[in-house]
Prior knowledge:
Strand 3 (about 90-95), helix 3 (about 100-110) and strand 4 form a beta-alpha-beta unit. The protein is of the alpha/beta class. The protein is about 45% helix and about 15% strand.
Amino acid sequence: xxxxxxxxxxxxxxxxxxxxxxxxxxxxxxxxxxxxxxxxxxxxxxxxxxxxxxxxxxxxxxxxxxxxxxxxxxxxxxxxxxxxxxxxxxxxxxxxxxxxxxxxxxxxxxxxxxxxxxxxxxxxxxxxxxxxxxxxxxxxxxxxxxxxxxxxxxxxxxxxxxxxxxxxxxxxxxxxxxxxxxxxxxxxxxxxxxxxxxxxxxxxxxxxxxxxxxxxxxxxxxxxxxxxxxxxxxxxxxxxxxxxxxxxxxxxxxxxxxxxxxxxxxxxxxxxxxxxxxxxxxxxxxxxxxxxxxxxxxxxxxxxxxxxxxxxxxxxxxxxxxxxxxxxxxxxxxxxxxxxxxxxxxxxxxxxxxxxxxxxxxxxxxxxxxxxxxxxxxxxxxxxxxxxxxxxxxxxxxxxx
Length: 401
């Protein structure tokens, strides 16, 4: 049970596709339902790249907070009631947000099917990071209470990192019910040491330049404004430095305006969103990948996927020292960390790295080995096996009782 899926492109859909691909390789039969939040023209069933998705029709009624979410959950629950008797699943596996978990738990109870709730981030923290509420507000506290209720009612809980696991446990969920299925990549999908795309480099004016890069969504918590603020100090030391920003999002206009106010706006290159199949071309132009996330609950307890993709491509990762990054990057070993929220220190750290590129190959090798050994999907997916086995055993026991 998913918030959204391909053909939409996001870290959420990429993780989903990786999970489904590896589960199918193990011979597991999976079926997929998206909620009304998929936000595409509705059709009951859609096949995308060989994957079949059941869709949920958008509910009617007023588009008002609380009423809207209640209607969405009711629509998802009704759709589950339609397809469960046809598919007859052994397990319902609901992925965050909590708007997916509540309908799955209700339908699971009604049909006698155990439910695993997988937390990729907390809905209340995502809302706070996007500015639609603030941490500690009434809406935040109510959403947190709903999340905690779902976690306690689910038959098992999986999550993507240790930061989230600790938070879930602190809400009173037993440690024996929580399993970490960490973000990972398939190293074989990434081209390590791919040749530089000089044609694209010429098109973007980046040939012969030292390129700092960010590829992803432009949210406020990514801290891209700090990276742009660091550019004058960097350019004072080396006028050949350029910043490549690939993607888009809510902060796009503000970031472009900030860059336009620089003494030389051309030193920051925006590409807009690019198709996933083209991303490798842009990666090939980057010398240092920089992820300057600001410190807040979301970034301190949730691990991103991008650093792992970078490591799999033999690229140098430079990132802020928020908790989510510290869980993935060992400073001075598999990458470099700098203090979050400080443009001057970002500039100093990047300038120092550019001046000491002789040490990059060693960092690249250690990062790649970390991904291959600890963060690859072929081994991580096996962590679902005992979780699913316990749920199926519980289902069989309940039926016998």
